[in-house]
Specification:
single chain
């Protein structure tokens, strides 16, 4: 009977849970799904991570390549690319990146710039001659909502080790020393926290795909760094948020950041040589 009611009237079915301040999966309104992080998952990448947020599973691999910077520039490049293949959910189709994947790629690029997570000057090896390009492929393996909160990119970048590069004066050619590597310089640690809005008043964190993202009257993603600084607010349409509700989201995002940072630091410490 409950399954039939859920199919015929999914919103009313969900609202009955909201009235009891809980959700169909048993979580409270402000409760995140269990998060697991595995670093160094792809041996062929220069840095990688596999992250599970409930059923949502995302893997990120970072490849570092050498390239010439823009003319008279002392900046490297970071190129994020989000892929939502058909294997991760019935809502996505095979072929060129869809609108949702493109929007996610642009969101991540904006967060990198706004947060100063990586200062692109740090990627320069020789002004106007040589710089690092970081290609960040973020692939969703299982989509169950809240893609933007998956920490795969940050965790993968924390895993990146760049080899030493020198330019020979006599030939002008670069020489890469793979035996001498240094960690990528990450200056800020931005973390996204997403919310779904119901009836313009009820806020829930970490929405699932079918029961929450699809039924919500709006969504908003807040990005903060370790200093509690607001790096980005992403609200793709939907109902407006009052100032008080937005401040509530920011406060919760700051709390979530502390938990995430602690988790990533713990995982990185566990794989460091004794």
């Amino acid at each position: 009977m409950a399954a039939t009611f859920k199919t015929v009237e999914p919103l009313e079915y969900y609202k009955r849970f909201l009235k009891e301040n809980c959700r169909p999966d048993g979580r409270e309104l402000g409760e995140f799904r269990a998060t697991t992080v595995n670093i160094g998952s792809i041996t062929t990448a220069d840095g990688s991570a596999l992250v599970k947020l409930g059923n949502t599973t995302v893997i990120c691999g970072v490849k570092a390549e050498l390239a010439a910077p823009a003319a008279d520039s002392n900046k490297g490049y970071i190129v994020p690319n989000v892929e939502l293949p058909s294997l991760c959910s019935e809502r996505f189709r095979s072929g060129p990146p869809g609108e949702e994947a493109q929007a996610a790629s642009q969101f991540i690029a904006d967060v990198i710039d706004n947060s100063q997570m990586i200062v692109k000057e740090d990627l320069c090896i020789a002004n106007g001659k040589l710089a690092w390009v970081l290609y960040c492929d973020i692939i969703c393996l299982d989509y169950d909502g809240n893609l933007l909160d998956a920490l795969a990119l940050l965790a993968a970048l924390k895993n990146v080790q760049l080899p030493s590069v020198i330019i020979k004066e006599e030939t002008g050619l670069s020489e890469v020393n793979l035996k001498q590597k240094t960690p990528l310089i990450i200056r800020k640690h931005p973390v996204a926290t997403s919310f779904a809005v119901f009836d313009d008043t009820v806020l829930i964190v970490d929405p699932t795909a079918e029961e929450e993202e699809d039924l919500a009257t709006g969504t908003v993603t807040i990005v903060t760094d370790e200093e509690g600084r607001l790096c980005s607010v992403h609200k793709p349409g939907g109902c407006p948020l009052t100032g008080a509700k937005l401040q509530d989201c920011i406060t919760r995002a700051i709390t979530r950041h502390k938990e995430v940072k602690k988790l990533i630091d713990k995982v990185i410490k566990s794989i460091m040589p004794k």
